[in-house]
Amino acid sequence: MNSGDILTKLKNKKIGVLYGGLSSEREISVKSGKAVLSALKKLKVMAVGIDANRDVAEKIRKANIDIAYIVLHGHMGEDGTVQGMLEIMGIPYVGCGVFASSASMDKDISKKLFRCSGIPTPEWTVIKRLEPVAEIKKYPIVVKPVSQGSALGVAIVKNATQFAVAAKEAFKYDKEIMVEKFISGKEITVGVLNGKSLPVIEIVPKGEFYDFKSKYQKGGSGHIIPARISCKAYSNAQYYAEKIFKVFKCKAVCRADMIVDKNNKVWVLENNTIPGMTATSLLPDASKTVGYDFKDLVLKIIESSLYDNDGKKTQPLRL
Ligand SMILES: Nc1ncnc2c1ncn2[C@@H]1O[C@H](COP(=O)(O)OP(=O)(O)O)[C@@H](O)[C@H]1O
Ligand SMILES: [Mg+2]
Predict the structure, then answer these.
(1) Which of the four pLDDT bands, split at 50, 70 and 90, describes residue 315?
(2) Which of 85, 138, 177, 214 could, after both became Cys, cross-link 221 (CB 3.0–4.6 A)?
(3) Is the domain covering 3-95 a CATH 3.40.50.20 domain?
(4) Is 2 exposed, middle or buried (0-12, 13-18, 19+ CB in 10 A)?
């Protein structure tokens, strides 16, 4: 399908862009959601913004939308819950389904899936709240909540004192946290659009790592496309990203975060099913280099969520 075909199909259809929500990534989601909404308006597609709070189902019914475009990050949005609600409501939606969303949100489950699919991921252990913690013998390590995003609650820890502080902070976000082997190297991320990898982005954060500030503050990090890594690492990164898309049964889009160590080995950290969608986010940046501007990307994501490659509907659409 070319972009004209999908625009024709969307004629007289109303899209509800779900943004905001209840998670600690709310602010970021509002930004992404507004950018998607504005792109749809520029394309003259009928669209409304819906703040996905506790009353989201009511708002959706009232707005009488035909399709939901979910631009929520974190819990109750990126984790399969809103996707499940929309399935029960019989409303087709954009992006990954319930399984891919919930499996990707849980970094422990994700890493187990990586491991059994031959995708290298750093060693890790999970710590549950109030459970005894085995002595950590080797630092540095990374402490992070099992289910969270935007690097909230993530810390690089060099000793036992720092560990106690970091664990306390990470537990603010989740009842389970992870201790993961620290991988020193170049940080990269690979977007996948309809099963095909986009160019690999190298992320150069200003701070110690790609933390919340580096992610969202103006000038907080640089994006270099294509990533300055060896050919082998580049093709491995794209291979792993496409494999994740398949293994996690993703739909339309995902973006996997990775680190390339000094031996050119690629380590996968996590998968994101609703990557950031502001004009300066990673996925739109990578798409630009293959000729999709922000509007084209939004349309491509909608198209591959609702139709297969032969243009047949893949959801019980009221289209
Ligand atoms: N094992 C690790 N080794 C080195 N840096 C890491 C590791 N895990 C996380 N980081 C750093 O923390 C950031 C956030 O971690 P990530 O696992 O991607 O979670 P989030 O869902 O919060 O983005 C990464 O982008 C990276 O900069
Ligand atoms: Mg990440």
Answers:
(1) confident
(2) 214
(3) yes
(4) exposed
Please give the distance, rounded to the nearest whole angstrom, from the Cα atom of residue 244 to the centre of ligand 2: 15
What are the pLDDT digits (tens) for 141-185?
999 999 988 888 999 999 999 999 999 999 999 999 999 999 999
Best substitution site from 23, 29, 144 to test ligand 1's pocket, by max atoms within 8 Å of Cβ?
144
CATH 3.40.190.10 fits 124-181, yes or no: no
What is the model's pTM?
0.94
Give me the DSSP letters along 87-106.
HHHT--EES--HHHHHHHH-
103-120+184-273: which CATH number, 1.10.3720.10, 1.10.4200.10, 3.30.470.20, 2.30.30.60?
Answer: 3.30.470.20
CA of 281 to the centre of ligand 2 (A): 12
Which residue's C-alpha comes closest to atom 17 of ligand 1?
269
Residue ranges matching CATH 3.30.470.20 in the chain: 103-120+184-273
> Does residue 58 have an active-site annotation?
no
| Mutation pick for ligand 1 pocket among 106, 147, 210 (CB with most ligand atoms within 8 Å) | 210
Q: Where in the chain do CATH 3.30.1490.20 domains reside? A: 124-181
Beta carbons within 8 Å of 114's beta carbon, 6+ residues apart: 120, 121, 244, 268
